[in-house]
Design goal:
2 domains, two-stranded antiparallel ribbon, 133 residues, 5% strand, 2 strands, 4 helices, mainly alpha, 47% helix
């Protein structure tokens, strides 16, 4: 009796070929209120594109997955262009113990964000942020 090979799913074929990944990550900078408006706009456009892909009758399931991942990848690229830019260099880390915390905190970029806040709010009183002992 001849043995027949079980047909492979097109999605598994795309995974094996490297055309798609199991999951996609979206990094959205969120250190300034301006980032919120840009993120809302970009994400609503991405949701509309994903809905069009899902409701398409002319695409195979594997094509829907490929196009959906492309939309998410473009969303990630567009989020990286939001201004103001992330002040941290890629891959950098500087861990310090802050205050009475028992764990270290990555402090790269904190000074730049504080300088931007001081520039935008010259009359702010930082004493309110410091916990009194």
């Amino acid at each position: 009796m001849r043995r027949t090979r079980k047909p492979m799913s097109p999605v598994v074929g795309a995974l094996r070929d490297g055309r798609i990944a199991f999951k996609r990550r979206i990094d959205v900078p969120m250190t300034d209120p301006k980032h919120l408006d840009g993120a809302i706009k970009l994400m609503s456009e991405a949701v509309d594109a994903l809905r069009r892909i899902k409701s398409s009758n002319s695409l195979r399931d594997v094509d829907k997955v490929i196009y959906a991942q492309e939309v998410l990848q473009c969303l990630n690229w567009d989020c990286q262009k939001l201004m103001p830019k992330d002040p941290r260099p890629r891959g950098a880390a500087q861990y310090e113990y802050l205050g009475d915390r028992l764990h270290k905190v990555n402090t790269i970029g904190h000074a730049e964000v504080q300088a931007k806040y001081d520039q935008d709010h010259p009359n702010a009183r930082p004493e309110h942020w410091i916990r009194k002992r």
